[in-house]
Amino acid sequence: MTYQVPVKRIITKDDLEEFLQSDAYNDYISLIERLNKSVKNMKIDSDVNISQSVQKILDILETVLKWIDDCPPVENSTSRFGNPAFRSFYDKIENSIGDLLHGLVPEPAIVEAGKYFQESFGNKKRIDYGTGHEANFMAWLLCLEKLDVLKEEDDQAVVLRVFVKYLKVMRRLQFIYWLEPAGSHGVWGLDDYHFLPFMFGSAQLYDHKYIKPKSIHDTETVEEFSKSYMYLACIHFINSVKTTASLRWHSPMLDDISACKSWAKVNQGMIKMYKAEVLAKLPIMQHFMFGTLIHFDGGHVQSEDMEDECGHHHNKADAGDVYALGQEHPECCGIPVPSAIAAAALREKSKGNGLRPIPFD
Q: Binning pLDDT at 50, 70 and 90, where does residue 211 land?
């Protein structure tokens, strides 16, 4: 098989519709749904089989975690926006892909699989992160499965060890470099940055006898069980950075979801929402890439000169209601929006305090 650097092929609404009917879409969402099913009623610290490949991935993510310390944030006290040192971290990832993936991915495939891995940590230019970058990490895992690096029997470990480790890396990056939310600014989304921990997390709680969706309002429950359940870890994270108002005010969607009677209903809703509000939204999916492993013949290959400095392709004919819930027209990327983490850090700094511990740590 000949591997290639993945390219963007979704530019218009028609391209997106074509993608939603493609094998590439089916392969991707099938992986997500299978991983979701695999962790029903399981804790983060449940005993799972750690294969050699899974251990190698965990080692890679641990290396990435250490690299954050090698690229400390630069003095940026006058700005509430993303710290430029993130670009040094990103360059380190990009320049070390071959070494990182050596021994895990067949050498010829690194050029393709490595691109998804690199893109899963955020955008170098905008110093931001969102569900599209999270999707790149899942696409990387899909590549590893297509390369027979990961097997279906690894599913539980992939979610409860690998994905949780990835979340740990991302939370650290969000805290250290004040990554801005990509497009969605949190008010109408689940979280400023992530979607999948809410899906997988609600699967973990699927039949829980005592913890109910409304339990997210109980601080003690969230604190006690955030180490075991991703959903509660995310609530803990939100509570740690958005301390000036209630969940009803800054996270109305999560507040609404808490009224559900069962986690099963929450989980089913999360799957539907992911399909509709992530995979079916042009501002997110116009950044998704395709190669030999995740193959899509449709759409139009994007060239660099078709994109603005934010990496968006603007097509006036596609203006309209095609944007993600809580996600403004892509032109908003030109208007910096500080992360809640940055706001909280400056607020606590003025009081002489530090932020609370990072969930997943």
A: very high
